[in-house]
Every structure is written in C-alpha cells, then in structure tokens.
C-alpha cells in the first residue's frame, strides 16, 4: 500500500462565490480551464451529475495525445459554499477533494481546495506545480466572463 497525505491550495479570485461554484460544476465552464497548462479537457469528456452520489468525471488530453481520466463521486454539495468529491481508490478509501468558497465581501472570493488521502505521485513538486497552472488557467478564464 502506498503512503497518502494531504494538500491544500488557496487562491483569491476576482469573482463572486456563485459564479465560481458554477464554473467548478458546469461542463461548459470546466472545459476552458480544467487541467494543467498543456492539456485540454473536451466538453464531451466531462460528466457532472451535481448531486450527492452523482458522477464527476473529466478526461484531459495531453499535448502528446494521451488521455487522463479522473472519476469521482460527489459527496457533498452546498452551493455556493462547499463542494466535495471522492475519487475511487484502488486500496480502499479514495482521494477526497473539498473545495470551499469564502466570499470576501469586495467582489473577490477565496477558494480553498483541500485534498486528503492524496497519493504520493500527486504530492510531488511537478504535480503541485501543474495544479497551480490550472488555477492560473481558471483566473484567465474568469477574466473573459
């Protein structure tokens, strides 16, 4: 069994929590920013069944043409405050991702992504840097709305 750990990412976005929540839960938004720089996530590769027990799946395509599918199940949905999904684990409990949206009251929202039961490969510096580029892509997309 491989070791798991935790990761936390925080970013302040110039948008309200309702818009940010919708961006994180609607395929027509997700397709514009989901995944690190150098990947695309085609609209037909995104499944969102926004209810507890519903599926959340994304298929990213790398520059080399290889695809990477994330399959999760929504555990909690509290629009526009909190979103939780769990990716199935090969060795029992899967990775849990909790996204919270904190309205700063000035047109900005702090979004905190906290992951538990994170496999070692996702905790490597390269993987964390890739996640940070997806947050940059999210910011760039928000600027177009």
Helix run count: 4
Main β-sheet, spatial strand arrangement: 1-7-6-5-4-3-2
The best one-word shape is: globular
User: Strand share of the residues?
Assistant: 35-45%
Number of domains: 1
Helix content: 10-25%
Here the CATH topology equals: Alpha-D-Glucose-1,6-Bisphosphate, Chain A, domain 4
CATH superfamily: START domain
Please give the number of β-strands: 7
Uncertain parts: none
Strand and helix order: EHHEEEEEEHH
Q: How does the major sheet shape up?
A: 7 strands, antiparallel
Mean pLDDT: 93
Distance between the termini: 44 Å
User: Architecture, CATH level 2?
Assistant: 2-Layer Sandwich
CATH class: Alpha Beta
Radius of gyration: 15 Å
Secondary-structure-based class equals alpha+beta
Description:
With 145 residues, the chain is α+β, with helices and mostly antiparallel strands. The chain has one domain: Alpha-D-Glucose-1,6-Bisphosphate, Chain A, domain 4 (2-Layer Sandwich), CATH 3.30.530. Helices cover 24% and strands 39% of the residues. The protein contains four helices and seven strands. The N and C termini lie far apart (44 Å). The relative contact order is 0.25. The model has no long low-confidence stretch (mean pLDDT 93).
Descriptive tags:
145 residues, alpha+beta, Alpha-D-Glucose-1,6-Bisphosphate, Chain A, domain 4, seven-stranded antiparallel β-sheet, 7 strands, globular
Write a compact overview of the structure shown.
The protein has 145 residues and is α+β, with helices and mostly antiparallel strands. Helices cover 24% and strands 39% of the residues.
